[in-house]
Specification:
Layout lengths: L1 E2 L2 H11 L25 E7 L2 E6 L4 E6 L5 E8 L13 H8 L10 H7 L3 E6 L4 E8 L2 H16 L5 H19 L2 H13 L13 H6 L2 H11 L5 E7 L3 H12 L33 E10 L7 H12 L5 H7 L6 E6 L6 E10 L5 H17 L4 H19 L2 H13 L5 H11 L2 H11 L5 E2 L20 H5 L18 H7 E5 L5 E6 L6 E9 L10 H10 L9 H11 L2 E6 L3 E9 L3 H13 L5 H18 L3 H13 L13 H10 L2 H11 L5 E7 L3 H12 L22 E5 L6 E9 L8 H12 L6 H9 L6 E7 L6 E9 L4 H18 L3 H19 L2 H13 L5 H11 L3 H11 L6 E6 L23
Helix pairs in contact: 3-30, 4-9, 10-13, 10-15, 10-16, 11-12, 13-20, 19-25, 21-26, 22-24, 27-32, 27-33, 28-29, 29-33
Length: 940
């Protein structure tokens, strides 16, 4: 449950906001509309490109989006309320309420338990204009009925109790403290609060610490009763489901909620036109410098926004963007970019550059302002730049539309901007954008007087950017019809038995094993996973860094294509071709339509076999890595994780598995040469060992021919032998590691054990640790440390074991305020001891079995992860019959068997614990007693 990251949300919006839906297959709408007889009180409103909208008498809007090709469904409910709607003293209330709605209702007293027992992938998020809750689950009628009834019930019957506020407030405060660890994130908060003098977009959605600690419960309850009502909600159901029956269930569960008598409050605060540069300076401990600038822009529904989004690409893309070329490639900064906030009311275009601590920041600041405000005017955006942006946008839209889960959640953002149909209308607007449009909006909005990040300069003749008001969305979407809906795929049951029935395995020439699962998919999508293995423990000695950098250079240019050419080729294909590698293997993952697979595979082969190793790109990569390591080396998570790994897995420095410190990484990056990287590729890369797995719309014989064409004669120069784990009993260690001036601390704990995944105790350990540290907020660790004690926003644990060696580990993690270190450690170790000493109840085991099994079904329903699983199984000589056997064993487990397995293999007294944070700093004073704060600091 999160307040949505500004950067992440922008990325999501970009990923689903562009393109067209032209398809090779004709549309299939047989499953998309229910019968002409609608349930009582339900009205059909409109239909656009396969999405149907209905409305209940109480005002609830309902959207159906079908994809029967996957055995999953998504229920997403969006309330049109976010931090924009909060009053003075109530900042963070929308996000805090998001947390409390998971605390239960009289009919659903333990929602986390239910979410886990149904095998869901759930979450909630809060943003400026909306709050949403969603569950992805195995597509059964029972699961769908449960999800709909749950969301209808907690819409109006959630507890929202004082006791829940007291405990959850400290969890949210810990989430706030985690954000305080990021200088660039805090700088963004400061800039936005300065850019918006009055509007609530200037306040971060997580809220002010004082408000979180002191908000009275009655104000939170009033906020809930006002906004959590059917006439302020949009329900989206996506994936595999039957329309007529589902619409009847929606009417049954939601229709009984009366339309409220109250009138929804309206927001009307807008900022005046900015009349001069504004400057923010942030001084904190850190290892990198950041310079950023924000410019006011129109709302996401405004006609100008399509051109602004293309302008954002022209400025901020990597590597074609002007900021990258003008600041990073000239070595003024290690990274640079830009993104726009697409909101219901006028928002912000944000540009930023990161500069290494040892470099001056002034040249980067000067270049950032100059490129945005002056050079774009002197050298307007070209046709090539704009077409590249449009192609990237179009590719993102088409790929996103093949994934109902992404579409279902993304519709939340568009509904919050006024109407879900804006998603398609915006796509159509992007198609029409010209270079002249892009240059017009640049001239209109990217002015120094509209910038927040500078100093005030008196100006005789002010040149100001007038921001238009948000348009009337109802009028602009009223007659919108959209294009044709995307063609559907086949209904595929992702059981181990069906996967095995449909999978064909063979061996390719040269030694690579292959698996093919042919099936019809939505939009003719195919997922291909290719992995080559090379080297052994002796030949790889002291070559780990060169191997890492060789892999990072693969997508930065080939002998025939520049880095930009590679991305342009993917955009033209509307495909994703991700190539990566490390010291022991190289991988290519392809997501594209069937017709584009030959060209996509040729592109992957070119990147793997003929990297360009451009000297300029190599220096840019080194600067990026140095900045990343310098920024992370004092982070609590980095310090705790490094200490944990170095203790449990003490490999020598020359071994590629050696856990290096950030300082060692920095020294290695500075030392390694391009010649070493080239030599690594020449000495190791080849196709003598590996795995190929393909799932989706393809013909196995055609893919085999493509593989033989591109990789059939590519031999590995050196022999391959997998790196066999070396067992070391490192003993037990408990260490505190200082991380000065960090508001959030982190803990890592673990125990290494000798067991393989074919051991008789393995099923019991898997389910036991699922109940101990997995699930959704209902594990033993989460209930104790987060739900009961209110000490951590993120806490959990798990167990993993090798299929080839007696190599396994128990692990756990938590984030927390530094002053709570001892409480968190004590609580986690006590809970681990309890599961060993007392085990689990029959009811716990029953619910865990259901949730664990259904989560595996959801995982196998994703074609990309299924392809990767098929590939990894080829390496260990395993089929999905093993999954069926494991699931059978897990479902037959008794509580006594689970406890016996844990007691035999896990010893909490032998678990090593590593904590990192600012433990030397005095703890902050406890908040004063108030409506929503903790009493006397006992929950801190």
């Amino acid at each position: 449950m999160t307040h949505t990251s500004k950067v992440l949300l922008t990325c999501i919006a970009l990923a689903v906001g562009a393109g067209n839906t032209a398809l090779a297959k004709g549309p299939s709408t047989a499953a998309s509309k229910p019968s002409a007889t609608l349930p009582k009180g339900v009205t059909h409103v409109t239909s656009v490109e396969g999405i149907e909208e209905y409305r209940l008498e109480n005002g609830l809007r309902v959207l159906f989006f079908h994809d029967p090709s996957k055995q999953t469904a998504v229920v997403n409910i969006t309330y049109l309320v976010g931090s924009r709607h909060e009053n003075y003293g109530e900042t963070g209330m929308a996000h805090l309420l998001e947390h409390l709605v998971f605390k239960g209702t009289p009919n659903h007293p333990n929602i986390p338990d239910e979410l886990t027992s149904h095998g869901t992938r759930p979450n909630g998020s809060t943003w400026y204009d909306r709050t949403n809750y969603f569950e992805t689950f195995s597509a059964t009628e029972e699961n769908l009925d449960w999800a709909l009834e749950l969301e209808a019930d907690r819409m109006v019957n959630s507890y929202i109790k004082k006791e829940h506020l007291d405990s959850e407030m400290t969890v949210v405060r810990n989430e706030l403290e985690r954000g305080e660890n990021s200088p660039s994130g805090i700088l963004m908060e400061r800039i936005l609060s300065t850019a918006f003098l009055w509007h609530n977009y200037g306040k971060d959605t997580i809220g002010a610490r004082a408000d979180l600690e002191s908000v009275p419960i009655d104000r939170l309850q009033a906020f809930y009763r006002t906004w959590y009502q059917p006439d302020n909600a949009v329900l989206v159901i996506a994936g595999k489901f039957e329309s007529t029956r589902t619409l009847g269930k929606v009417a049954e569960y939601f229709g009984r909620i009366p339309k409220p008598a109250r009138k929804l409050p309206t927001t009307y605060t807008l900022d005046p036109t900015q009349d001069g540069e504004r400057m923010v300076t942030l001084r904190r401990v850190g290892d990198t410098q950041v310079v950023s600038a924000a410019y006011h822009i129109p709302s996401g529904a405004h006609a100008d926004y399509a051109a602004i989004e293309m302008l954002e690409y022209v400025l901020g893309d990597v590597p074609s963007g002007r900021l990258h070329k003008g600041i990073v490639e000239t070595k003024k900064a290690s990274s640079a970019g830009a993104f726009a906030f697409q909101l219901k009311e006028p928002g912000i275009l944000y540009a930023t550059a990161e500069v290494r601590k040892e470099s001056p920041i002034e040249p980067a600041q000067t270049a950032l302002f100059s490129i945005i405000e002056q050079e774009i005017q002197k050298n307007p955006a070209t046709k090539e730049e704009v077409e590249r942006a449009k192609l990237d946008y179009e590719k993102g839209f088409e790929l996103a539309m093949s994934n109902p889960e992404r579409v279902g959640v993304s519709l939340s953002e568009w509904a919050a901007m006024g109407d879900w149909r804006l998603m398609f209308l915006h796509r159509d607007r992007v198609k029409k954008v010209t270079p002249a449009d892009v240059n017009r909006v640049a001239a209109a909005y990217l002015k120094s007087s509209n910038r927040t990040a500078g100093v005030f300069v008196p100006t005789e003749k002010p040149d100001r950017a007038e921001i238009p008001l948000a348009p009337d969305v109802d009028s602009i979407v009223k007659d919108y019809k959209g294009g044709e809906p995307i063609a559907q795929g086949e209904v595929f049951d992702p059981t181990p038995e069906n996967i095995e029935k449909r999978t064909v395995r063979t061996a390719m020439k040269g030694g690579v094993k292959a698996a093919f699962l042919e099936k019809e998919t939505r939009a003719d999508i195919v997922n291909l996973s290719l992995n080559f293995r090379f080297g052994d423990v002796n030949s790889l000695k002291n070559r780990g860094t060169a191997g890492d950098l060789a892999g990072m250079m693969l997508m930065r240019g080939t002998k025939k294509k520049s880095r930009q050419d590679i991305y342009d080729a993917m955009d033209k294909l509307k495909a994703t071709v991700a190539v990566s590698a490390g010291p022991t293997s190289a991988t290519a993952n392809i997501l594209c339509k069937r017709a584009q697979l030959p060209e996509a595979m040729a592109l992957a082969a070119e990147m793997l076999k003929e990297p360009g190793f451009d000297a300029k790109e190599f220096e840019i990569l080194k600067q990026e890595l140095l900045a990343a390591y310098e920024e992370s080396r004092n982070e609590p998570g980095t310090k705790a994780s490094t200490a944990y790994t170095r203790h449990l897995y003490p490999y020598p420095k020359e071994d590629p598995r050696y856990a290096s410190t950030a300082d060692e990484d920095i020294a290695e990056i500075k030392r390694v040469t391009l010649d070493e990287v080239k030599a690594f590729h020449k000495d190791f890369y080849g196709a003598s060992n590996g795995e190929l797995a393909v799932v989706g719309d393809h013909a196995a014989k055609d893919v085999q021919k493509l593989y033989e064409k591109h990789f059939g004669g590519w031999k590995s120069p050196k022999a391959f032998a997998r790196l066999v784990p070396v067992w070391t009993d490192a003993g037990t260690k408990n260490e505190n590691i200082e991380a000065p001036d960090k508001a959030n601390a982190e803990l890592r704990l673990g125990q290494r054990v000798q067991i393989r995944d074919d051991d008789a105790d393995y099923p019991g350990l898997v389910l036991g640790m699922f109940m101990t540290g997995g699930g959704f907020l209902n594990s033993r660790l989460a209930v104790r440390v987060r739900q009961k004690d209110g000490l951590s926003y993120g806490v959990g644990g798990g167990f993993s074991a090798s299929a080839l060696d007696k190599e396994a580990s128990f692990s756990g993690y938590a984030i927390f305020a530094p002053q709570n270190r001892d409480k968190v450690e004590k609580a986690m170790l006590e809970e681990l001891q309890k599961v060993v000493d007392s085990g689990f109840t029959e009811d716990e085991v029953k619910q865990a079995k259901s949730g664990w099994l259904q989560s595996r079904v959801v995982g196998r329903a994703q074609d990309g992860s299924l392809a990767r699983s098929l590939g990894s199984y080829l390496f260990i000589d395993r089929t999905f019959a093993w999954d069926a056997d494991l699931e059978k064993k897990v479902m037959a487990l008794t509580p006594a068997q689970i406890q016996s397995a844990l007691k035999k293999h896990m010893d909490p007294k032998k678990i090593s614990v590593f904590k990192s944070g600012d433990f030397a700093k005095p703890a902050p004073a406890a908040p004063a007693k108030g409506g929503g704060g903790s009493s006397g600091g006992s929950a801190n």
